[in-house]
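Private note to self, pasted from the team thread so I don't lose it. Backbone tokens:
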């Protein structure tokens, strides 16, 4: 958990970087512009997923920070000695993820108290916002704060109606992934809402038999007014949003469901469903909950 003092320091560094690179109120967030201002060099032509150990010999680095699980599935590398950031070539097809990884690596470079470590190797584990390893958590916080331009994200949320279409619009506006946008949307929301992220479980034949919980987030108003929901870890076909998933529904804003809270109360909810092939997102809020929209939404695409 990042302490308040460190958060303020990261806030200040992020603000100065956005301001100095003239990136505030430029959409999507100009990550390459921020990169150039930070004086780091980027190399995104390396296949880091299939990287060989000999690659590190070219860096002439004998000690570096990495996961105990080894060098598999690396998405980004920050080499402080060469002031170079390496981004896996596969992320070219996922701009939202690439932007976050790039800013995560910039974070390792500009948070000066991390200078003791000269090389960072990052995969899905270190890039997860739920990771509590100090330097990685700080870099993730910096990346999210910078990508969503600090208070600009909340200002945009206030203009839009409550729901999935707003999340997709914000994702497109800031150049982020659906996952990071949804998480930020719920955690910063002034509405009572929750986000259930599901990952499919494969049976012995490789078919998706059911889904398991990857993450569950609540807005502060939801936790304060309602508490938490009494939900299982795994979900089967009896759940309407699993039927949405099984029937390959991509996008829906018409779901209704009754859920129990941990206090034994029944809560009538609306839910919105989105499946991006990697995860399914179930956005939950009490029936009647809404945010008065001041801006109409025109979605370009759902990819």
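Design output:
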């Amino acid at each position: 958990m990042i302490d308040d003092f460190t958060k303020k320091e990261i806030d200040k560094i992020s603000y100065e970087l956005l301001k100095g690179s003239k990136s505030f109120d430029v959409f999507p967030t100009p990550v390459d512009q921020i990169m150039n201002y930070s004086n780091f060099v980027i190399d995104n032509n390396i296949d880091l997923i299939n990287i060989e150990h000999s690659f590190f010999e070219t860096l002439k680095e004998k000690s570096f920070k990495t996961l105990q699980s080894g060098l598999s599935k690396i998405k980004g590398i920050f080499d402080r000695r060469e002031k170079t950031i390496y981004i896996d070539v596969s992320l070219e097809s996922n701009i939202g993820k690439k932007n976050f990884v790039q800013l995560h690596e910039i974070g390792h470079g500009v948070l000066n108290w991390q200078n003791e470590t000269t090389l960072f190797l990052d995969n899905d584990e270190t890039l997860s916002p739920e990771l509590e390893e100090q330097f990685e958590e700080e870099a993730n916080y910096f990346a999210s704060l910078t990508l969503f331009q600090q208070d600009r994200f909340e200002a945009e949320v206030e203009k839009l109606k409550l729901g999935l279409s707003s999340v997709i619009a914000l994702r497109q506006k800031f150049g982020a992934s659906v996952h990071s946008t949804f998480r930020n949307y719920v955690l910063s929301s002034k509405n009572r809402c929750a986000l259930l992220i599901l990952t499919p479980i494969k049976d012995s034949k490789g078919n998706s038999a059911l889904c398991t919980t990857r993450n569950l987030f609540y807005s502060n108003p939801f936790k304060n007014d309602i508490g938490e929901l009494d939900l299982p870890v795994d979900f089967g076909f009896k759940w309407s949003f699993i039927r949405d998933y099984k029937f390959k529904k991509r996008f829906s804003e018409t779901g209704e469901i009754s859920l129990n809270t941990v206090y034994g109360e029944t809560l009538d909810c609306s839910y919105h469903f989105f499946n991006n092939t990697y995860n399914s997102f179930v956005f939950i809020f009490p029936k009647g909950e809404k945010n008065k929209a001041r801006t109409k939404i025109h979605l370009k695409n759902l990819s």
